[in-house]
Amino acid sequence: MKYLRPLLVFVLVLLSGFGLARSAGTGHVKAVWVTRWGFESESDVRELFENLEPLGINMVFFQARGACDALYKSAYEPWSAVLTDTLGVHPGWDPLGVALEEGHSRGMEVHAWINVFPAWPVSNEGNPPTKTVPPHVMRVHPNWIAVDRDGKPMSLVKSETKHNYTFLSPTHPSAQRHVEDVVEDLVGRYEIDGLHLDYVRFPDSSYSYDSRSKAGYINALRDTQITYTDWRRENLNEFVGKLAETARRARPGVAMSAAVWQKIESGREYHFQDGIEWVTRGYVDFLVPMIYTVSVDAFEERLNAYSTLAGPEKVIAGMGPYLEGFTDSIFSQELKAIRESGVRGVSIFNSDYALTYSSLVEAHEPAEQE
Predict the structure, then answer these.
(1) Burial 198-233 (b: 16+ CB within 10 A, else e)
(2) What is the pLDDT of residue 58?
(3) Which residue in 304, 346, 359 sits closest to 28, CA to CA?
(4) Which of 15, 117, 204, 253 gives a 20 to 30 Å CA spacing to 241?
(5) Is the pLDDT of residue 17 over 70?
(6) Residue 15 backbone phi and psi in degrees, to 5
(7) By the 8 A CB rule, do 196 and 112 touch?
């Protein structure tokens, strides 16, 4: 059955009208990520889109899901605490709905950006999510959390982990089904132009050794000889395919994309994130490698690697001008590298910094085609 999935997803791509072709028309993409901390009110969102329009921004990745919580009306997860300081409390307005209204009125595509596997942020105190309706998954399914080789679940206490989040196990079948349900609800409920997957990876290669994942691996060994490393990577590949199938069925024509690790091999070997394979199989329409660096040489090298392996038309280059030491000169040189590479466009992390470097963003245009 698993061998039919790539064919099924390919058919769904055809039926959907080729989501990539819809992205910002067929022209050069100028995108931004809008984080869940980038606004505090409905008027903030409206003002943000108003300010982005003169820069020529034509695609917005608007964060709708951070840590198994929602900045939209969800049937499965509680309202984020970002806007009210209390998990599960309705802020009195719909952030994603307002973003869609503002973006579409200005000719911008709005893609719902979701963190796929982060379950809850770590903290000094290690406080778990509070009781809500609907309940947070960590409260009702603590066994879905990623587990290390020693059988220890990821910790919520900052001093006990190097990670910023406690993750759902990427290979736990029930955790996967929950995310599929979330995606089906979100994509079916809102007229989004695309679904943008972030943190669609393992926290690192020492996870997940939960009992359900290990059982899945043992079952796979009945049909093939495969290492646990390769099984985890392939299981995640197939899960991305399921998300694509779910989203395209819920909204034909929706564009699928993923924010991916800036170094291809590091992502593939350490986080089991095989973005090139996702493009090859048609699971995602384009990749947005997060090439966050102040080294222009490293930026060019990593961008060219993605362009070569995925194809330039399948890549939107992510820039990180939030980094310490980032300058106007670095910003200009990285934009020049993007222009000369012939990739699909640029995405800036985040919208605040697009506005900080507004004159450079506004002036950025694709290279003239000969």
Answers:
(1) bbbbbbeeebbbbebbbebbeebeeeeeeebeebbb
(2) 98
(3) 346
(4) 204
(5) no
(6) -70, -30
(7) yes
Q: How far apart are CA 66 and CA 121, in angstroms?
A: 9
Preceding omega of 135 cis (within 30 degrees of 0)? no
Whether 144 shows a pLDDT value over 70: the answer reads yes
The residue whose two tokens read 């980094």 is: 323
Residues 2-13+29-117+172-206+234-363: name the CATH superfamily: Glycosidases (3.20.20.80)
- Which tokens in the block code for residue 29? 């993409």
SS (H, E, C) the chain: CHHHHHHHHHHHHHHHCCHHHHCCCCCCEEEEEECCCCCCCHHHHHHHHHHHHHHCCCEEEEEEECCCCECCCCCCCCECCCCCCCCCCCCCCCHHHHHHHHHHHCCCEEEEEEECCEEEECECCCCCCCCCCCCCHHHHCHHHECEECCCCECCCEHHHCCCCEEEECCCCHHHHHHHHHHHHHHHHHCCCCEEEEECCCCCCCCECCCHHHHHHHHHHCCCCCCCHHHHHHHHHHHHHHHHHHHHHHHCCCCEEEEEECCCHHHHHHHCCCCHHHHHHCCCCCEEEEECCCCCHHHHHHHHHHHHHHHCHHHEEEEECCCCCCCCHHHHHHHHHHHHHHCCCEEEEECHHHHHHCHHHHHHCCCCCCC
Contact in structure between 82 and 66 (CB atoms under 8 Å): yes
Give the start-to-end residue ranges of the domains of the chain.
Answer: 2-13+29-117+172-206+234-363
Indicate whether 153 pLDDT > 50: yes
Q: Note if the pTM is more than 0.90.
A: yes
State the average pLDDT for the chain: 94
Residue with more model confidence, 8 or 239: 239
Q: Do the beta carbons of residue 337 and residue 296 sit within 8 Å?
A: yes
Structure tokens at 332: 């200009």
pLDDT, tens only, 253-265: 999 999 999 999 9
The amino acid present at 53, given as its one-letter code, is E
CA dihedral (262, 348, 114, 138) in degrees, to 10, reads 70
Name which of 63, 279, 326 is nearest 335 in CA terms: 326
In whole angstroms, give the CA distance from residue 146 to residue 172: 8
